[in-house]
Design goal:
By secondary structure, the chain is α+β, with helices and mostly antiparallel strands. It has two domains: about 140 residues, Pnp Oxidase, Chain A (Roll), CATH 2.30.110; about 80 residues, PNP-oxidase-like (Split barrel-like, Alpha-Beta Barrel), CATH 3.20.180. It has nine helices and eleven strands. The radius of gyration is 18 Å and the shape is globular. The N terminus is likely disordered.
C-alpha cells in the first residue's frame, strides 16, 4: 500500500494542509484590496484557522466586512511562479472551539505568545470557492467540497485524534521519521505528528509541515491503525 498519488483537487488540499503561512486579502473601507501575511493552520475538516490581533489592519477590515481571500503556496521550492498555489475565497468568523484552538497551537509553536496578548483572537474561514495554479499551464477551479473534508461520517476517528497523536509521538517517533524521510522524501530530523484527519497525517519539523495522504479515506481508529501499519512497513523497506 502506497500513499495515494494526489489528483488535482487533492493536490490543492495537500497545499492547504501543509501551509503554515498564508497571504490574507481583506477589504479596506474604500473597497481597496489589502493583503497581509498571516500564520495559518487547519481544522479537522481543513478549514483555515488564524490567530490575529484586533489592532491589525486586516482584522479591522474583516470585522467590518468578513469577505476574504487566502492564498497558500509551495515555499522554498525554487522559482515561485513554477510552484503550486491555492487561492481560497469565503468569509471569516470568530471561533472559540477548543479543537480549532488545539489544532492551531499544534502547528504554530509560537501561538501561546500571541494568545497571551488580550487583543488576539482565533478565527475560522468558511470556504466558498478556490482557484489553483499548479505550475505553468495547470490552472483550475476547485469547489469547497474538493478542499474541505467531510467529517460527519468519521466522528469516532475525530474524537480519538488527541490520544492517537500522543501515542504516535511517544511510542512511535521513529515511524514518524520514516514516514517523512522514506515516503515523503524529506530531510532527516525529529519529525513529529501534529494531527490527523480522515484524509491524511500531518507531520512537522520546526515550522515545516508535510502531509502524508492516506490511500483511502479513514473513518475509524481501527482503520487508521491498519493503514499506518501498512505504510510503516512500506517505509521500512524503502
Amino acid at each position: 500500500m502506497k500513499p495515494r498519488k494526489a489528483s488535482n483537487a487533492e493536490g490543492a488540499k495537500k497545499l492547504l494542509r501543509e501551509a503554515r503561512v498564508a497571504s490574507l486579502g481583506t477589504l479596506m473601507p474604500s473597497g481597496t484590496p489589502f493583503v497581509s501575511l498571516v500564520n495559518v493552520a487547519t481544522a479537522h475538516d481543513g478549514s483555515p484557522l488564524l490567530l490575529i490581533s484586533k489592532l491589525a489592519v486586516h482584522t479591522k477590515n474583516l470585522l467590518r466586512d468578513n469577505r476574504v481571500s487566502l492564498m497558500v503556496d509551495e515555499r522554498d521550492q525554487g522559482n515561485p511562479l513554477a510552484n503550486g498555489r491555492l487561492s481560497l475565497t469565503g468569509t471569516i468568523v470568530p471561533t472559540t472551539d477548543p479543537e480549532d484552538i488545539r489544532r492551531y497551537k499544534a502547528r504554530q509553536p509560537d501561538a501561546h505568545v500571541y494568545e497571551a496578548i488580550h487583543d488576539f483572537g482565533y478565527y475560522r474561514m468558511v470556504v466558498d470557492g478556490g482557484h489553483v495554479v499548479g505550475g505553468f499551464g495547470r490552472i483550475f477551479d476547485v469547489k469547497p467540497a474538493e478542499v474541505i473534508t467531510e467529517i460527519a461520517d468519521a466522528r469516532k476517528f475525530v474524537d480519538a485524534e488527541v490520544d492517537f497523536v500522543t501515542h504516535l509521538n511517544e511510542d512511535h517517533a521513529a515511524t514518524c521519521r520514516l514516514y517523512a524521510t522514506k515516503l515523503l522524501g524529506a530531510k532527516d530530523g525529529e519529525w513529529k505528528c501534529v494531527g490527523c484527519d480522515p484524509d491524511g497525517l500531518d507531520l512537522q519539523l520546526g515550522r515545516k509541515g508535510l502531509r502524508l495522504v492516506f490511500p483511502q479515506k479513514v473513518r475509524t481508529p481501527g482503520a487508521l491503525r491498519k493503514v499506518l501499519k501498512q505504510l510503516a512497513e512500506q517505509a521500512r523497506t524503502a
